[in-house]
Amino acid sequence: MTGNLNTAGVWPRPPALPRPVFSDQRWLDAVFLHWRIPEAAAAAFMPEGVQPDVFDGSSWVGLIGFRMEQAALGRGPGIPYLGSFNEVNVRLYSREPDGTRGVVFLSLDADRLPVVLATRAAGIPYVWSRIRQWPPFPGNGGGRQHATGAAGTPGSRNGSAVGYSVRRLGATAARSNLGVIPKLHTAAADPLSIFLTARYGMHGRFHGRTIYVPNTHHEWPLFGAEVHQLSDGLVGAAGINVSGPPESVLYSPGVRTRFGRPRVLETTG
């Protein structure tokens, strides 16, 4: 299956979000690192009824760090303390028979234990970790001014290095340090960058059934970046083997997103 978008690099229109809105979130200072992997390697992790999405003959695994800010239930205000935290996830790319694209999370590290416990109860593979963003996010003890990026989006680092350090609990637990230097004068609008970031939902398992949780957001303000620091154990801990530098390195100052009503996939199993 070839999941390629057209060569013009046109950002796909987000589908209508099924109501009600379950959560309103802001994802800031997002770092995207991606490696090619064999389609068969990704297929082993796909929920029933879903197959790997493929670009340029390959599946892709992503290591993504960002700052969750002001996450809210429904359309309400951001939840104090619990609604703002650092997250680093490992994800694959999925596609339903009807063409609906999504992501499949292999792990999601977060530094808020109540968030981890609640999401794991819902079948989402969160892991409680210590995560440090560098430089610290404005208003999070770092003393930096709240910068503005493309399209007035807060969170931009204006070309300075931005990254995340993850340490899971335990002496032998996986760790990761990932950071990039954004190239804020180099907008990323190529088909691969769009393929990896224009995702409007996640596929997962819930009580033995495959579900799709939809979301919607505007086009990411997306920029090329170069690796500043990378020492990762999270991708391997998730069961995927990669080697060498990532083929795709991207940065976004952030985007606002909303999640809608999940649906259950009808499968033949």
UniProtKB/TrEMBL annotation:
It comes from the Bacteria. SUPFAM superfamilies: Acetoacetate decarboxylase-like (SSF160104). InterPro entries: ADC_dom_sf (IPR023375), DUF2071 (IPR018644). Gene3D superfamilies: Acetoacetate decarboxylase-like (2.40.400.10). Residues 138-158 are annotated as: Disordered. PANTHER family: DUF2071 DOMAIN-CONTAINING PROTEIN, DUF2071 FAMILY PROTEIN. This is Uncharacterized protein YqjF (DUF2071 family). It comes from Pseudarthrobacter defluvii.
